[in-house]
Amino acid sequence: MSQVPNINKENLPLHIAIIMDGNGRWAKEKGKLRIFGHQNGVKAVRDTVESAAEIGIKHLTLYAFSTENWNRPKFEVNALMELLVSTINKETKTLMENNIRLNAIGDLEQLPSSCLRELKEAIDKTKDNTRMTLHLALSYSSKWEITQAVKKIAEEVKEGKLDLATINDSTLDQYLTTAGIPDPELLIRTSGEHRISNFLLWQIAYSEFYFTDKLWPDFRKEDLYDAIIDYQSRERRFGKTSEQVKA
Ligand code: IPE
Ligand code: IPE
Ligand code: MG
Predict the structure, then answer these.
(1) pTM for the predicted model, two decimal places
(2) Is-catalytic flag, 69?
(3) Cβ of 20 below 6 Å from ligand 2
(4) Tens digits of per-residue pLDDT, 14-73?
(5) Cα 66 to ligand 2 centroid, rounded to whole Å
(6) Domains of the chain
(7) What is the DSSP track for 91-146?
């Protein structure tokens, strides 16, 4: 049964980030190749994006491909890149219909040119959409992102454009690929793994974590609702005492 009515619209996370994991194991369970799992993961993406927008989530970040994933067998990497191109191509229409803006974070220059072209086209086409922004983390790793930010900051200090004394944590925020995007209040990881795998290390400083054993291709609306309902039962203290928060 749908749990939407149990979601408190007054306490929605503004930003949900998801580590979509378990495609390979899902396929293996069915005696299929890993890529079959990735193909079926697209359905879960569609369902999640649609329901997040319906609920009223403003930012959804999906970890689709990590920097470390480049080290997978060439066959799998190529198949994933092809799947990415065809999915973006097919889904742009749905994004337009649902008023969803597409954005990408990561070391995008590493993507094959066809992929980058398709991605930039979709980003451009959807740029005026306002209901929700879907951020795809592609060729993304948090250590890469933080290193880039630190390099840029150092360069600007050296050139006299930035005063060392004024640097604080919001300065760093502005140099990350997530500049301008609020930090995720809720981070979900599927497939029963309890790790971060180089995802948004800086931005999840105060995120609530939600882990589910569901493998990504099986993830559906109801699983997203469950995660949000669980999030809404948490007390976010930000270092204060429970009494202070309640006062
Ligand atoms: C997540 O599923 C998708 C990507 C990382 C691209 P996996 O491919 O990691 O699947 P498992 O974890 O091996 O089952
Ligand atoms: C994390 O999944 C990256 C994505 C979901 C894109 P992995 O399957 O690559 O993570 P590890 O290597 O098991 O930690
Ligand atoms: Mg995995």
Answers:
(1) 0.97
(2) yes
(3) yes
(4) 999 999 999 999 999 999 999 999 999 999 999 999 999 999 999 999 999 999 999 999
(5) 7
(6) 13-143+183-246 (3.40.1180.10)
(7) HHHHHHHTTEEEEEES-GGGS-HHHHHHHHHHHHHTTT--SEEEEEEEEE-HHHHH
